[in-house]
Amino acid sequence: MSWAFLRDLLSGVNKYSTGIGRIWVAVVFIFRLLVYVAAAENIWKYEHHEFECNIKQPGCENVCFDHFFPVSHIRLWALQLIIVSTPSLLVVFHVAYRENREKHCNQKLYKSPAEIDGGLLCTYLISLILKTGFEIVFLVLFYKLYNGFKVPRLVKCDIRPCPNTVDCYISKPTEKMIFLYFLVATSCLCIVLNLSELSYLIFK
């Protein structure tokens, strides 16, 4: 897929954001999106082919891989990036609505269509709450799907059609775990930034 749309979306929202919001955009774009595209995607590229079990029973390796990795880490990370960036569209649409309304009325209805006040402030706050909620949901999802934020070197599988308990080995587990911790750390940082911006706007 092309990430250009997400990049353009984040850049467009940047001009309506507070200082904390601009830091959030930088973290998402540099530490999450670019890391994903430049490095993380390649680590999980051949994860299924490199998943090995000490038995050649037809179908055993496939069902064991599906059991321990119901959703690929990297695909879930990509989905998280898309979902947590989507609420920013609310702000873009609201500003577009303001500008369109002024155009149709042929008069200036707002001090500045991009100024965060009134209805736009409510939209911005809602987008922050949604982004924070989505981040938390995905962290819980990662934790539940993979039994914690870790990638084991060895997993034992006894699911049919495996004839008995077999040992399966995950490729590059240390490297994958480092990137998983990085994912969790940047996600937590984004939650802190969203809550800080939310508090700043409310108290301001």
TrEMBL record:
GO terms for molecular function: gap junction channel activity. One gap junction consists of a cluster of closely packed pairs of transmembrane channels, the connexons, through which materials of low MW diffuse from one cell to a neighboring cell. It is a multi-pass membrane protein. It is found in: Cell junction, Gap junction; Cell membrane. It comes from the Eukaryota. Belongs to the connexin family. One of its GO terms (cellular component) is connexin complex. It holds the Pfam family Connexin. Keywords: Cell junction, Cell membrane, Gap junction, Membrane, Transmembrane, Transmembrane helix. Residues 42-75 form the Connexin N-terminal domain. This is Gap junction protein. Residues 134-201 form the Connexin cysteine-rich domain. InterPro entries: Connexin, Connexin_CCC, Connexin_CS, Connexin_N, Connexin_N_sf. The keyword Transmembrane helix applies. A connexon is composed of a hexamer of connexins. GO terms for biological process: cell-cell signaling. The chain crosses the membrane at residues 21-39, 77-97, 118-143, 178-203.
